[in-house]
Amino acid sequence: MTNHWVDIKNADLIIVMGGNAAEAHPCGFKWVTEAKANRGAKLIVVDPRFTRSAAVSDYYAPIRVGTDIAFLAGVINYLLTNDKIQHEYVRHYTNAPFIVKDEYQFEDGLFSGYDEDDRRYDRASWGYEMRDDGFARVDYSLRHPRCVFQLMKTHFSRYTPELVSRITGTPEDRFLHICEAIAEHSAPDKVMTILYALGWTQHSKGSQNIRTMAMIQLLLGNIGMPGGGVNALRGHANVQGITDMNLVTTNLPGYLNLPNDQHQDFGEYMELKALKPIRPDQISWWQHYPKYHVSLMKAWYGDAASADNDFAYDYLPKIDRPYDVMQMFELMHTDQMNGFICQGFNPVAAVSHKAKMTQALSKLKYLVIIDPLVTETSEFWRNFGSYNDVDPSQIQTEVFRLPSGLFAEEDGTFTNSGRVIIWKEKGANPPGEAKPDREIIARLFLKIREMYQAEGGAFPDPILNVSWPYNNPEVPDSGELLREISGKAVADVRDADGRITIPAGQQVAGFAQLRDDGSTACGNWLYSGAWTATGNMAARRSTADPSGLGVYPEWGFAWPANRRILYNRASCDMDGRPWDPRRAPVAWDGQRWSGPDIPDMRPNAAPEEEVMPFIMTPEGTARLFAGMNEGPFPEHYEPFESPLGYNPLHRDNLKATNNPAARVFAQDWASFGDADEFPYAATTYRLTEHFHFWTKHAQSAAVTQPSQFVEIGEALAQEKGIRSGDDVVVMSNRGEITATCVVTKRIKPLNVDGKVVHTVGIPIHWGFAGLTNRGYLANVLTPYVGDANSQTPEFKAFLVDIEKA
Ligand SMILES: Nc1nc2c(c(=O)[nH]1)N[C@H]1C(S)=C(S)[C@@H](COP(=O)(O)OP(=O)(O)OC[C@H]3O[C@@H](n4cnc5c(=O)[nH]c(N)nc54)[C@H](O)[C@@H]3O)O[C@H]1N2
Ligand SMILES: Nc1nc2c(c(=O)[nH]1)N[C@H]1C(S)=C(S)[C@@H](COP(=O)(O)OP(=O)(O)OC[C@H]3O[C@@H](n4cnc5c(=O)[nH]c(N)nc54)[C@H](O)[C@@H]3O)O[C@H]1N2
Ligand SMILES: [Mo]
């Protein structure tokens, strides 16, 4: 979240689209209720299903799965053509005035630089025109034909309400009503927020869905504002924390990048990453990149990382492609990977195209499962009839199960969606032979290191030299780990005059103290200060909220620097006056930036200096034109399995039917189905009563939703002669499942480009392990194709057929 949970109470309008917060985030949803009750906020829900979020909304619109970019692009067109944007904000705080290179083009649904064989764009033509002094050219009148603002107007003018309705199936009047409601929030003192989750991410163009809404929020001037922002409601209790710590294989902790094979030279790499401003006087925060990188390597390798060996740069793998979960299973499937350690993860249930998953695991030599429970993954080799139709005699994979504790059986921290890190105590010790994850990983590491010590290896240094300074090496203490992540001086840190500012051994107060000379160590620059600033994380539980804005400055610690709202300088005009004095996180007081929140700005940057609020970019502005993998502007592409089979925007160019940069492995093209055979749009989602695939082991949860079901609308039910309670078979080109059918008024047929499109809804929680009635994994049906930027599978838009069983 750019903002945070409590801040939702400050919104005037809340859009829930691409998520279903009332059911998937029922506790956090209370802040929506507060906004409605206390300030008369309105709630709008856009979802293919009339969800429980929709049931308490002020306005609802249905949408065809996988078409949100068309909807949101239509909103952008509405805002631009009706001049409903916040002018000063757009002119100064976004890259609207920047002039784009001549070579940039958009034609027939493709941007310049497309390489069809590689399914990849060369982004060179997407840059700004630069001046001789290294700064970008801008036109604050916004009239230059190639300034971002004018290019946007042209690009989005195609998304008329009529076209939006044709693509999305959302009735035109409903779409226009929502446009009008959104447009009101271009007033400087009116703020809208967006709450989204998987309905946007789990698509072959998921990142662009979110980015399109970010553009709307920028046009309205809603980023940096209390009650505003772009807010991802995250999944598992600590998934924000694990993302911050490098969930994505191309990252290092704190969103630093793992160098790729083009970057073998340390000096060159640091220079490349330390981005200089491309506008005069801007902050361009990534200039500090080398400090964070070097401090990370000091945390990992201690004395073995020194200036003499480029701070152990050669120990880092230089990555040739992302190794996300789809890539891993592709490698297993093609015999390029033979061992897999799987911790707190049930991929057979959770990843798309289940048949491919079990085939892939069958090719392994060994599989290690670290989990408190039996899972579909640990049982993948066992025959469960049609639920898991495998022949164990043909599977040679050796499966090791290491029983772990559960998250509630360890102390440590959680980071919530709002970037707030809080300390938690454990509820109990893991039972029986189970061990905490920390101990399992530590002991695996120590054993592997021992083997390298004894037997050598091709390149043992990165293993042998890991710094492991814990009191009990077999069970590192969570406090020790958090202090390592928070950072400390490892040699005396001195100022320019040689005076010691932080003596060796002392924790640093925050990332501003980190150095690139090897005198500091820090496991994650974004968490720097989490330990020190607070003295003791466990004590950060003050419920004082002096401003009433829901800041709670001494409850937990929000990264970065305990800042609750990112880019909060943008909540003020160019003169440093709040757009809305009743909701001012910071303001310029004549001397400095101050207020209830920690300013996201150099504290003494006077407004006359014109230091722009988006301090992470070299421009100082947010980007309406940005280097996403499938294009600098969003464009509607159909899901890989589309009920239309063509893109109404580009019927004549088949290459622009689906996202041209989405990742598809060669063998998987044949596994996609088409609308002739599988005519219905399908999507998957969760229920409040279960958490994915493991609460089915808990009796109390298992009885609340004991049996698998799918949902269809009344019109389709009638067409197919299906009644509520009948068993049905749902088929995709990858397999079929049988379940009870619930016929519902909550799903309505949509009129899409003259064709009636029915939606089949498939909750995900059943499988062949646990205490519920046995069921089929929903992912028997889903396709194996990944988003172009995040590689998230397209779980939310595919094709099925349905028949009475
Ligand atoms: N009780 C419970 N709570 C959970 C979880 C759980 O398993 N159980 N899981 C947690 C996790 S890990 C996560 S990531 C979150 C997920 O939170 P959500 O994303 O809110 O959960 P989902 O139910 O998967 O999907 C949300 C909605 O997206 C809609 N949708 C599907 N396709 C589209 C589309 O193309 N466009 C639009 N606009 N909407 C679409 C679906 O109809 C559904 O209502 O929930 C978390 N909370
Ligand atoms: N079709 C479809 N597929 C989906 C989704 C969808 O919407 N549609 N949603 C996707 C999303 S967003 C997510 S997050 C995934 C969820 O997929 P997973 O994360 O794989 O599923 P979970 O069942 O939440 O958890 C996996 C395991 O973690 C174990 N566990 C719990 N606590 C601990 C612990 O402290 N230590 C260890 N070692 N193990 C522990 C549990 O016992 C469980 O077996 O599913 C994804 N798959
Ligand atoms: Mo998730």
From TrEMBL:
Subcellular location: Periplasm
Cofactor list: [4Fe-4S] cluster
GO cellular component: periplasmic space
InterPro entries linked to this entry: Asp_de-COase-like_dom_sf, Formate-DH-alph_fdnG, MoPterin_dinucl-bd_dom, Mopterin_OxRdtase
CDD domains reported for this sequence: MopB_CT_Formate-Dh-Na-like
Domain of life: Bacteria
Metal-binding recorded as keyword: yes
Transmembrane parts of this sequence: none
The EC number(s) this enzyme carries: 1.2.1.2
Record's keyword terms, sorted: 4Fe-4S, Iron, Iron-sulfur, Metal-binding, Oxidoreductase, Periplasm, Selenocysteine, Signal
Molecular function per GO: 4 iron, 4 sulfur cluster binding; electron transfer activity; formate dehydrogenase (cytochrome-c-553) activity; formate dehydrogenase (NAD+) activity; molybdenum ion binding; molybdopterin cofactor binding
Domain Molybdopterin oxidoreductase: 2-378
SUPFAM superfamilies: ADC-like, Formate dehydrogenase/DMSO reductase, domains 1-3
Domain Molybdopterin dinucleotide-binding: 682-798
Enzyme class: oxidoreductase
Pfam family, one: Molydop_binding
NCBIfam families found in the cross-reference section: formate-DH-alph
Family statement: Belongs to the prokaryotic molybdopterin-containing oxidoreductase family.
Protein known as: Formate dehydrogenase O alpha subunit selenocysteine-containing
UniProt source species: Thioalkalivibrio nitratireducens (strain DSM 14787 / UNIQEM 213 / ALEN2)
